[in-house]
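tool_call: predict_structure(chain=1)
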Amino acid sequence: MTNDSTRSTDRTFVTDPLERGRHYFRDAIPGIDTGYFGPMWHALAIAQIVWRDIDDIAAGYGVSGSDIFVLAALLIEEDRSPRPTDLARMLFVTAAAISVRVAKLSKSGLVERVPAPDDHRTVHLRVTGKGRELTLSAMERIARTCSFARACRDLTATDSTDLETLLRTVHVAMERDFLTA
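tool_result:
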């Protein structure tokens, strides 16, 4: 019997359910292409681990992982003065979801809505000084302690570049589908 501490390093713990799933769905749905199953399984598992890490870190700042994601995106785009709709498109969420998140961050003093000088109906979003300090501190902690960041640091330079290239290729293809839906 394998305990939980050895399971995480046991390669068969990761691959066995994947192979069983691939075979199960191939047998259950004749003619189905299960070539996607392995990469998707890993992507979903990695996403779960990453969000757990980020949520744990964010909780230490009194915010959620999604809040950190929004704040980081606003800092990245600050020279473009993003509108809520720009942010929603960038993060693949609805305008309503961004509206709720921005209201929460604004109430917390982390984001401010700035009226557009040329159109009174439009607002731009800006991270406050308090929001910038929180985000930079959280991102530094994510870079230092997040398991994904640690795993990436252990890759060779070539593997890291290859991983980014493959993920970018899949991301761009999926983004095209998302933006046309």
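agent: The longest helix spans residues 157-180. Proceeding to next step.
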